[in-house]
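Typical record is below.
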Amino acid sequence: MPFVNITGPILSDTAYVNNELVAKDLTVSLPEIAAATADIQAMGTMSLPIWQMLEDMELAITKIGVDKGLSKMIKPESLALELRWAQTDIDANAVTKNVGCKAFIKAIPKVIPSIELTVGEATENEVTMTVTRYQLFVDGKELWLIDRLAGIVRIDGVDYSSGVNNLL
């Protein structure tokens, strides 16, 4: 049986907005990519995923503190975000190496977060955004590119939207 590398913990992360560093060591929930479904009749009803039509994609970033970085993340306009993180990777020989990951995202902030103030504690502010483009690289290899406005759904090098786009 072939060995699959074991991915370890996230070591650190950073966020950039329009190529400017805005935060370090944050909590990020990258978008879920969910295909829309259509019900068809096949021995009853069956829901079939349609990868050329996607459900809403949302990004959530929790940042510590109220500062200029937070204000850059909540501008009510389309933002180019780059999220970088390092994680450990262990191979079959128990050799551990650090692997770089990057997510390139175009998104529009949905809210200016509420800010809760407690004496002696840091503030945690969650920014949620609607995502129009999401590209993920791990160790230099593209895993997927989802671009809703350009009509691209590319996963592991295969463009699942090209069949429809070629007909249009």
DSSP finds two helices and twelve strands in the chain. The mean pLDDT is 92. The first strand starts at residue 6 and ends at 17.
